[in-house]
Amino acid sequence: MSQGRGSAVVAAVVVVCLLMVLNSEVAQAATYKVGGAGGWAFNVAGWPKGKNFKAGDVLLFSYTKGAHNVVVVNKAGYDSCKAPSNAKVYSSGKDQIKLVKGKNFFICSFPGHCASAMKIAVTAT
């Protein structure tokens, strides 16, 4: 086998291995409907308990459009139920948000909703 062919074979094997790793990571991503059958609603704060989330998993926030929203906040916003002015706000009623590694915090910013436990904190590994 010539030097050029050997290098091409090695490169092809490396590419195939990388594709296999990338595909396995994509295949492992899961979609979770926040709140289960009840969807994004009051008293949903305990919903994440017992679930093992991974970075790349998708949270589906299902609710009646116009009745609620989903706001991505930091820990301070989660604890205070106040969204910073630059926070990302979702309002479609079928919002899909991909988790990042580490802590992820979400609230409904409608008056009184977050205080009624319409917020979740999710840790993704």
Description:
This protein is an alpha+beta fold and about 120 residues long. It has one domain (about 30-125): Immunoglobulin-like (Sandwich). It is about 25% helix and about 25% strand. The strands form two sheets. Strands 4-3-6-7 form a four-stranded antiparallel β-sheet. A three-stranded mixed β-sheet has the order 1-2-5, with no helix packed on it. The longest helix has 26 residues, at about 5-30. The model has no long low-confidence stretch (mean pLDDT about 90). Pfam families: Cu_bind_like (PF02298). This is Basic blue protein.
Short description:
The chain is of the alpha+beta class and 125 residues long. Helices cover 26% and strands 25% of the residues. Residues 30-125 form the Phytocyanin domain.
